């Protein structure tokens, strides 16, 4: 009687939101039940309705990348509520600047 | 009769949300009326209630940086709904990798 249908195993989003995971659920392909924290973070930072709207405005083949980038941003914001992933951007910008400064004398 | 009090000039957030901007409004110091797009972006991507919650969990001196990083992320997501500011992180990581590869032969 085992089945992989979403009726038996709701996706992480529907489980979190305590709702029935229907066939065609927009979250199910991107929030598998074995990764509950991924949806919890995205929900905390962006909210389920904002993410639903965003996914509905994208083409299906763009949605996986979008969810993964949202999950990355959300996790960064949970870890660092002040700077989120903008902290990583500042760090990388300083690293690029530092490397360019190091290289300059070598190129003269 | 001119006054700079928030009674006369609601902040961009309260104007957007069509509500009275009360003294002590948590948004007012960071969303001045002359920058309406800043709040519109943050509202579209994160939602006003999520931002309120996040600001309330921070110390007052951390809130300006938090709002500015949220505004940066929101603007990036409005411009690029698939990758948002994670696109900038990928670009910078490739730039660092490229510079390190360029430097390697110079250091041998």
From TrEMBL, chains A, B:
LOB domain span: 9-108
Coiled-coil region: none
Superkingdom per UniProt: Eukaryota
InterPro entries found in the cross-reference section: LOB (IPR004883)
Name this protein carries in UniProt: Protein LATERAL ORGAN BOUNDARIES
PANTHER family, per the entry: LOB DOMAIN-CONTAINING PROTEIN, LOB DOMAIN-CONTAINING PROTEIN 4-RELATED
Family: Belongs to the LOB domain-containing protein family.
């Amino acid at each position: 009687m085992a089945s992989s249908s979403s009726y038996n195993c709701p996706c992480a989003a529907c489980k979190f939101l305590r709702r029935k995971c229907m066939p065609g659920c927009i979250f199910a392909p991107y929030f598998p039940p074995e990764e509950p924290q991924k949806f919890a973070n995205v929900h905390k930072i962006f909210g389920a309705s904002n993410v639903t709207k965003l996914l509905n405005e994208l083409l299906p083949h763009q949605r996986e990348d979008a969810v993964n980038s949202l999950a990355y941003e959300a996790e960064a914001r949970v870890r660092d509520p002040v700077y989120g992933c903008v902290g990583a951007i500042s760090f990388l910008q300083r690293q690029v600047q530092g490397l360019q400064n190091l290289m300059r004398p070598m190129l003269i």
